[in-house]
């Protein structure tokens, strides 16, 4: 629908022009479609998936030399995300044990982004992690908040 924004595309060979609506859902990078998808995903997570507990966002980015290697190997990128989350979860469990909480479990929702704010190629992770652990109790689990992480 052109009323929601569009881009004018021109073929350099034949000089033909046409309009592509931003609500296209299928023509590559579309700011309108991407914003809608992000909004729908956020609403679904908040209303249907995530428990109502405090969260902390963990972000991991990579040096320039590593970025291209990760972009060429999606399996490696996935493995790196797994290692990153294991490290965050291990930190959560250690902090929980210091507070006397045993068998605490962490979780996360992660998104892999491939571009930075200036559209430079920079794969990085955004992981939303509960700021605490889930501890087994009779009939289910209970959430136990943890203090913020420290540098030490």
Automatic annotation (TrEMBL):
UniProt domain Transposase zinc-binding: residue ranges: 3-61
Protein name in UniProt: Putative transposase
Superkingdom assignment: Bacteria
InterPro entries: Transposase_32, Zn_Tnp
UniProt organism field: Stigmatella aurantiaca
Domain called Transposase IS801/IS1294: residue spans: 107-136
GO annotation (BP), single: DNA transposition
One GO molecular-function entry: DNA binding
Taxonomic lineage: Bacteria, Pseudomonadati, Myxococcota, Myxococcia, Myxococcales
